[in-house]
Amino acid sequence: MSQRTDRPPVDPALQEVLTALAEQLPPSMTEEMIPMMRAGSPADVMPETIAAHNLVQRDTTIDGYEGGPIVVTTIARSDHAGRGPGFLHVHAGGMVAGTRTTGLAPILPWIVEHDAVMVTVEYRLAPEFPDPYPVEDSYAALVWMAEHATDLGIDPDRIMIIGASAGAGIAAGTALLARDRRGPNLTGQLLIGPMIDDRDRTISTEQYDGMPPWDRKSNRMGWKALLGDRSGTDNVSIYAAPARATNLTGLPPTYIDCGSAEVFRDEDVSYASALWAAGVQTELHVWAGGIHGFDFVAPDAAVSRAARAARTAWVARHLGDK
To answer: For the segment 217-230, what is each residue's pLDDT rounded down to a tens digit?
Structure first.
């Protein structure tokens, strides 16, 4: 398949950031770059930022997949009392990088506004811990969260799962596991630019080959790390690559967004369409000119502010209905 040169343009407000990224980063991430990817990210949130929101955090070691230890961090208002909504956060990082603090900044105000309790999970990373470790670790965190809801101050009927990029893909897989294992129940899933299809067949993955921060070759690397030689074959579960699911009935109300100028665009739009076909209440936003992770790399751009406002409004509407 030859690379397409015709593609939706990048938002002008993001172009300067994209140019800077192209000067700082190679166009594609490779397996050899995983140590560099794990060295830290501007999206990592420091304890000082959490404290500045008058939030408190606590780390707990729990049993992950096959009993292996993983760490979850609980974050709540310092004056939290009673039972509020619960957010299970699954971090980004292409299946190979990131920590439980990655990408928390936009969620912290939701904890304050809704007196919610967030649990963010340190799932184990590929390639050292390939499929099914990441999604099973995330599911283990969901089970722990529901079983300890009273102690954590969480209403078990108001748990929402949230993720971005690879974390959104793992979150979608976790929602499928929760459905098929008959719990814990989720009240919603918020998926930001989800990485959900290993098959590398969409037009958008072809269009955005060679463009940072996450292009087609980077995507192939992430899936190869997770799935090994199974990547792209018929031997891949729906929990690892949710776009492969043919039955999406019984999933919770869903919010999906992505950019029009990113690899994940077409698989995300297809997933939203499949959810609608299954009768699942779903809201989809494709932000014109948005690159992958645009609201993290250019938080002050108008399109980034609009995307955050739409997510915030969906969370408020959804929790307000409960």
So the answer is: 999 999 999 999 99
